[in-house]
Specification:
13-stranded antiparallel sheet; 2 domains; about 260 residues
Length: about 260
Amino acid sequence: MQACDFSRSHLWFRIDLNEQVATTMSHNPTHTVNNVRIPLECVCDLTPHGGQPVQYVLAASCKTERTNVPGDIWFQPNADFCPVLSSEHFLIIKRYDHTGRKVMFYPPSQGEQPHRQSGLIAESYTKTNIDVRRVDADVLDTVEQVVEIGLADRLMVAVTEFDTDDGYHVRLEYPVKTINLGDREIFYQTDTGPVLYPQNPGGCDIPIESFCLAFIAANSPDWAELLLNVPTPIPGDLTTDHYSQPIRITCKNTMLALR
């Protein structure tokens, strides 16, 4: 079978101010066009009951920045910036030092930026592209094979499939970054992320709004535990977005070794 080669897979988006007003900007730009390339962290196929799958991709985090400037690049307060795309919709997740942080759009007449901004790609970006590069891969059927491949320093990808309570089938594909390997007791356990986790996609105006970020750990073919990134209390009667909510899911885990 084939698997995503995450080392060569990217999300692209283009903002061209000569063609379209930007709806996601935080500063007055010094340029009219910007093409952005970000590597992928996770590919999620979300299939409603009786419907067709829709592919969503999670791109790696970066930091909020001013581009093409002679200095003072980083915004203060700064946010962790994380985009999610399908062929039709986008979701931008911004995580600041606390969830009450307020930052304005540019121009300010557009109002305050939400920490989760979603909408139609056609209304916000001149062009987008999801470049998922696939290569041949071997299915690892046993724990012994996972341990052997891991100790041989081969690249691995995991696939986790499960059904939501509201009737969606979820297929997550993601690179195995951190993995624990026991060559005496013979075990493995992934500890990797971030991945996308849909929370009640049927209850959202558009399913992309349901995604939250999570880390995933698995040491068995039929269950996994996720650690969800959710608003978490901190001193000062504040909350911050933090990986703090563990959940267990019944699922099918498949481990793959890239050739």
